[in-house]
Amino acid sequence: PLIRAMFYEFPADPHCWELQDQYMFGPDYLVAPILYPNQESRQVYLPQGDWESQSDGKRWSGAHTIQVEAPLSVLPVFRRLDH
């Protein structure tokens, strides 16, 4: 499927089995939508690997949770770099 639950792409990562508010778009893009009115930031779990924010180009190594700013004009999307 094009839109995948996190555990579908990362079945060995126990954190991915618990996530209900972010998903993979294809094998390379992680999407973490804003779900609540007036929410301007959120936590995003990045599975193992290297990731790049599509809004500002920042890069992270995965296997941990980050806090990202997400004003109304920004949808938190991260591209997997090492896939």
From TrEMBL:
Q: Which residues form the Glycosyl hydrolase family 31 C-terminal domain?
A: 1-80
Q: What InterPro entries does the record point to?
A: Glyco_hydro_31_C (IPR048395), Glyco_hydro_b (IPR013780), Glycosyl_Hydrolase_31 (IPR051816)
Native source species: uncultured Butyrivibrio sp
Pfam families, alphabetized = Glyco_hydro_31_3rd
Domain of life, source organism: Bacteria
Name by which UniProt lists this protein: Glyco_hydro_31
Gene3D superfamilies from the UniProt entry: Golgi alpha-mannosidase II
